[in-house]
Amino acid sequence: MDVEFVLSAPDLASRPPRVLPEFAFVGRSNCGKSSLINLFLDRRGMAKISGKPGKTRLLNYFLVDNTYYLVDLPGYGFAKVSKTLRAAWTRLMKAYLFAGDRPLAVIQLLDARHRPSAEDRLMTGWLHKAKLPFAVAVTKVDKVGRNKRGAHYQEIVDTLGLTPETPFFPTSAVTREGAGDLKAWIAAVLAT
């Protein structure tokens, strides 16, 4: 896989001028988004990882195989930043998701250890409203016992109101689980 960091865009006008399909990764702050992106891209440190919520503040564009962009969006929910800055991130994400001017699909990330939050439900609602193809990637599954995972997955499906058609990928940056399935889903979306 050939990967190149392209730019960090503070607004829609700053996005790359070259229009390609975009696959956006969205999720709560500290849900493991950067770790999953690095696993997906098979590049350590490509997306900056931090133990402190709110590290990603811009639309970060990575060009993959000169074919599509992987876009790392700011985390939503809890972060040790001002309410004004969190509100600005929310406006940026919503504007991006509803822009409608570029081919777009979304991977919504959820931490396997936690029940989906109000912000997670809001994001799923936006994805339905924007009529965007999307998949759910449940992160950090290695931190949940194997015999408890099914109940955790069902709680996520029920809380978000997901249909059986919604692609659902258990993932772990530690065990490397799920990256191949995500790549296959993206290849299938690109082929349609």
* CATH architecture verdict: 3-Layer(aba) Sandwich
Low-confidence stretches: 51-55
SS summary, helix count:
5
Q: What structural class is derived from the secondary structure elements?
A: alpha/beta
CATH homologous superfamily title: P-loop containing nucleotide triphosphate hydrolases
Approximate shape: globular
> Helix amount, in percent?
25-40%
Radius of gyration: 15 Å
CATH top-level class: Alpha Beta
Strand order of the largest sheet: 1-3-4-2-5-6-7
- Per DSSP E runs of 2 or more residues, the count of β-strands stands at 7
Q: Mean pLDDT, nearest integer?
A: 90
Terminal residue distance: 21 Å
Structure description:
By secondary structure, the protein is an alpha/beta fold. It has one domain: P-loop containing nucleotide triphosphate hydrolases (Rossmann fold). The protein contains 5 helices and 7 strands; from the N terminus they run ββαββαβαβαβα. β6, α4 and β7 form a beta-alpha-beta unit. The two termini are 21 Å apart.
